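$ run holo --ligand "S-adenosylmethionine" --emit tokens
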Amino acid sequence: MKEVLTNPTAGYYMNRDVFGQTGDFITSPEISQMFGELIAVWLVNEWTKCGRPTPFQLAELGPGRGTLMADILRVFSKFKIAESDFSVSLVEVSPYLGQVQEKHLCSSQSQEATELPKDSLHYKQSISLYGSPIRWYNHISDLPRTFTLFLAHEFFDALPIHKLVKVDQGWREVLIDLNREDFTLRYVLSRDRTPACLYRMNNEIRNELEVSPQSLVITQAMASRIHRDGGIGLVIDYGHEGDKTDTFRGFKNHKLHDPLVDPGTADLTADVDFAAVKWAATHPSAVEGWKANLTYGTVDQKDFLTRLGINLRLDQLLASCRDETVARDLKSAHRMLTDPVEMGSKFKFLALYPPVMEKILERYPPPGFF
Ligand SMILES: C[S@@+](CC[C@H](N)C(=O)[O-])C[C@H]1O[C@@H](n2cnc3c(N)ncnc32)[C@H](O)[C@@H]1O
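-- output --
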């Protein structure tokens, strides 16, 4: 999965725009500005609860075309958050998508790695349309240590999984093998236990499951920064609470696609195991004798957006809209984002806070989650 999606030369994400009508799938920020605007308002509200620490970092993992970040920066400027009060950090593995993000978000041409100091941890930097510094990183662990608002929208589902199955002899891993008769790929079971089998919880009751060690490592990196340096995390994705078994699939031209056919030409994805993400987000602080981070959610996208005021925002946009086609598109975007049979129930929101926020959050719980 890692090779197929992010191989430097042939990886699915590495050299093309995969989003929208002409791509393979569409994401919520690409459907309507309302999505990013409401997330921006949520971020400003929660940052305010933390005492508006400056300078802070706004970090997005897997920003795609940069549409969500563009909507957030526009709202931040409306709230008159000074450009010198924060910097933008994008964790993006695809150089092609990095260019698309730059076109979308920046006014001037970026400085590439060759012009940056040798020891810099980012590979590109520029200035956003609103004047804040914007930098690109390969890994979350390279980000500067400071108070950070983390966002991950449809990021964790793109990280590789291992598939485990319980058979009479115990746990085995599903591997991918080359069928030498017709040179097609096929699933096979490992003969013995593989190291990935250790990733299952001891009290696991499912006979089949997917584990994503990379998701847990990235969640812990985000969680330990929030714990030590302050910050908030908002993870949005399709997923489950540790109860689903077989969700690995491909998408091509907006249709399901067999992941083993023509690898590299289709998106590969698996539902996020939010129970595992929450576990990683609240450990290892207990080991260090500190109080654990706090998590809220998951809640369905429909509930989060409705509580944040998407109906009101739709009405506002419709009131200033003179074009019937645009009005129809706005209503249809609202339906796609919130209807339970579209994206309303499939997508979940999870928030992450440091333990020092406990008392404040008891009094002022995070909007959208209640
Ligand atoms: C499904 S897209 C989501 C894009 C965007 N967040 C949206 O919702 O429109 C996944 C994004 O994560 C990036 N990505 C995938 N694997 C990554 C990794 N290991 N490290 C950093 N970025 C990664 C992809 O290049 C892409 O930008």
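-- notes --
The mean pLDDT is 94.
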